[in-house]
Amino acid sequence: PDPGPNGLPVTIGYGSTYNEDGSLIQLGDVWTHEHSVYMKSIELNKALSNLMIYSPKLFNEPASRIAAVLSWVYNCGIGNYRVSTFKKKIDDCEWEDAAEQCKKWDKAKGKVLRGLTRRRAAEANLIINPI
After folding, report:
1. pTM recorded for the entire structure
2. Mean pLDDT over all residues of the chain?
3. What secondary structure, in 3-state letters, does 2-63 show?
4. Three-state SS for 112?
5. Which of 43, 63, 120, 126 is packed most tightly, with the most Cβ within 10 A?
6. Section 77-106 average pLDDT
7. Residue 3 confidence (pLDDT)
8. Any idea what the Cα angle at residue 26 is, between residues 24 and 30, rounded to 5°?
9. Angle, to 10 degrees, between the axis of helix 95-103 and the axis of helix 114-128?
10. Between the CA of residue 61 and those of 48, 56, 71, 110, what are the distances in Å?
11. Rounded Cα distance, 61 and 51, in Å
12. What is the Cα–Cα distance from 1 to 44, expressed in whole angstroms?
């Protein structure tokens, strides 16, 4: 179960919420490590494709900056990204403001989760200081 309130959505592997056939992950589902890696690659490629459609200026940015934004999109979803102030700051190349917006997304159902706070801090750092 997700660490947020109510334990939803149920995830497996590297945070997948859907099986390859499109059905929702259920408690008790089992994936091999190999299948988890396979599904992660499919989901990351889809997220990256969508990210570049909605923020094409990222093509010209360092790979680590793209990876940080991709990590956010993989976790929060392209729908949230499309309507976020985070995206606006990314599109305007306002990196410090984008990093601050990134860090605001550390809650699940209004509850701050330490793991998300750490994840957002790491993403924000790479947005400001790409390597």
Report:
1. 0.91
2. 95
3. CCCHHHCCCCECCCECECCCCCECCCCCCCCHHHHHHHHHHHHHHHHHHHHHHCHHHHHCCH
4. strand
5. 120
6. 98
7. 73
8. 110
9. 170
10. 14, 10, 15, 32
11. 13
12. 21
Contact 1, 27 (CB under 8 A): yes
Amino acid at 84: S
Signed CA dihedral, 81, 124, 70, 106: sign only: negative
Write out pLDDT tens, residues 21-79. Answer: 999 999 999 999 999 999 999 999 999 999 999 999 999 999 999 999 999 999 999 99
Closest Cα partner for 6 from 114, 108, 123, 119?
108
What is the pLDDT confidence band of residue 8, given thresholds at 50, 70 and 90? Answer: confident
Of the pLDDT bands very low, low, confident and very high (cuts 50, 70, 90), residue 92 is: very high
Q: What is the pLDDT of residue 4?
A: 67
Q: Which residues partner with 24 through β-bridges?
A: 18
- Using CA atoms, how far apart are residues 131 and 52, in angstroms rounded to an integer? 20
DSSP tag of 129: S
